[in-house]
Amino acid sequence: MYSNKVLETFANPRNVGEISDADGVGTVGNAGCGDIMKVYLKIENDIIIDAKFKTFGCAAAIASSSTATEMIKGLSLDDALKIKNADVVEKLEGLPPQKIHCSVLAEEAIAAAIEDYRAKKA
Amino acid sequence: MKNGIYLDNAATTRLDERVLEAMMPYLTDIYGNASSLHFFGRQAIKAVDEARASVARLLGAKTGEIYFTSGGTESDNWAVKGAANAFQRKGKHIVTTAIEHPAMLETCRELEKQGFEVTYLEVDKDGLLSVEDVKKAVRDDTILISVMFANNEIGSIQPIADIGSFARDEGILFHTDAVQAVSSIKLDVNELNVDMLSLSAHKFHGPKGIGILYIRNGVRISKLITGGHQEKSARAGTTNTPGIVGLAKALELTVENMAQTNKRIKALRDYFIERVENEIEFCHLNGGREKRLVSNANFSFDFIEGESILMQLDLKGIAVSSGSACSSGSLEPSHVVLAIGCPIEQAHSSIRFSLGQHTTKEEIDYTVQTLKETVETLRSWSPLFNVEKGEGKYV
User: Fold this and answer.
1) Does A62 touch chain B (CB under 8 A)?
2) Which end is more exposed in chain A, N or C (fewer Cβ atoms within 10 Å of the end residue's Cβ)?
């Protein structure tokens, strides 16, 4: 049911970890639903220079976290916000229908981290 | 490990080569329809008759009480819908448990839509039903009690004979889904006091697509599948001759080797549980230690999610199953693990290991080692676990 790309990504996810001096942190989901995604961003001049994540969730949630954090590195905050869950799904060469919400969580976690950064800055 | 390690025997089992050998003639040369009068048909019906007699003997039943079906799901559907339909004038109340297989639960929900009332009895933390609770649940209009013999997820074994004895005294029909029990528990329909019993061949090294519903003589339930006159006109559909021959052979081998196989599997399973509990922190055995199928171990590993454990083990050649919502396609984690009082977070991280007759100690050792590494890796990826402090918490 999973594409090879999802399995490969899940076997060796990129960007797992925390950023101790992160400029923005976003957490979405809850343990009762079986998914929690926490995204850490290092931001300079409105550009994402580093992104890391920690995820409690299924293979699709972990693969989505890895792929989404890869996609936003080097992007401006506005461009990062333009990355939608469908883009993550495409990069993963598809997700099973019941797993689409995992890619949505990735999109939301990034948005939450950016919001956190902007709120702190304001 | 070459070929992979299969620890999902509760899902299905490998066809025994001796079973395949027994089936082979009926998949090739002896292909006649068992209902045909000519000699092609006669050869087939002879094999079916012999298989039915053998199955009946092994279950302590009469030959005429064994009906072949397409498997456990059909048998459960037939037993419950057949009884509901036949006895609805007498009453519309059914008693079952909250931890039944979906074949039973969904069937009961369908009947509820048609105006039947169903009581889903709760179980204790070990996944066990109390006979007293069954007694309390029964009403004047109760027409059927159906309780699974052994649970497919946590392996808990219910007091079937005692419930059956009560049901008989009350004159209430009693059915048990013995699909998970048959591979390690000797079944005798008279000792168990059951009126109906469901089995499926692929759970005991037989072929898929063939099962049994035992119906005690004198019990008249309605048909589920209508059509031709097969199975004494009680269950229509072309007789599955190779399946029936395979089921009978598989049951014969299972019963013959049961004591020996159980001893070996239980020793391996106990060794597995002991090592996991000693070597992996923050894990919980779901279900009790007594009255549990010898092949079953079900653990929750805190702070990580079950499907990701399953998939990591899969990448390393180990096949297990999970009670997490993510692996079932539903939003809720396992109804069974929740029913024994496991918190929802831990239900999401439950993994079932079901050993089989081919499981080796070497495989168990490799599994424990791989599981330890997997749990450690996934915890290092989890926002709920602090690796440096070696502790975690659900937020």
Assistant:
1) yes
2) C
Facing residue for A58 by CB, picked from B307, B380, B384:
B307
- Measured in degrees and rounded to the nearest 5, phi and psi for residue B67 equal -115, 130
- Backbone φ and ψ for B394, nearest 5 degrees, come out as -80, 125
| CATH for B17-254, options being 3.40.640.10, 3.90.226.10, 3.40.50.300, 3.40.190.170 | 3.40.640.10
Predicted pLDDT of residue B331: 67
Active site residue A102: yes
Q: In what order do the strands lie in the sheet with A35-44?
A: A24-30, A35-44, A47-56
Buried b (16+ CB within 10 A) or exposed e, B46-72: ebbeebbebbbbbbebeeebbbbbbbb
**Residue range(s) of every CATH 3.40.640.10 domain in chain B:** 17-254
Residues in chain B: 395
Architecture field, domain B5-11+258-387: Alpha-Beta Complex (3.90)
Tokens linked to A3: 């594409």
**Mean pLDDT of the region B343-359:** 95
Q: Are B101 and B75 in contact (CB under 8 A)?
A: no
Strand B5-6 and strand B318-319: pairing? parallel
Chain A interface test: which of B327, B381, B385, B393 (most A C-beta within 10 Å): B381
pTM above threshold 0.90: yes
Q: Which residue of A lies nearest to B393 if distances are taken between CA atoms? A: A31
A4-121 has CATH 1.25.40.10 classification = no
Residue with tokens 């996609």: A71
User: Which residue of chain A has the CA closest to B313?
Assistant: A11
- Amino acid, single-letter form, for residue B237: G
pLDDT in tens, chain A (122 residues): 899 999 999 999 999 999 999 999 999 999 888 899 999 999 999 999 999 999 999 999 999 999 999 999 999 999 999 999 999 999 999 999 999 999 999 999 999 999 999 999 88
Reported as a single tens digit per residue, the pLDDT across A51-83 is 999 999 999 999 999 999 999 999 999 999 999
B325 in A contact zone (CB under 8 Å): yes
Amino acid identity for residue B301 in this structure: F
**CB under 8 Å to A104, separation ≥6 — which residues?**
A85
Report the distance separating Cα B56 and Cα B199, nearest Å.
12
Q: pLDDT tens-digit profile of B125-147?
A: 999 999 999 999 999 999 999 99
**Nearest CB to B382; choose among A27, A56, A58:** A56
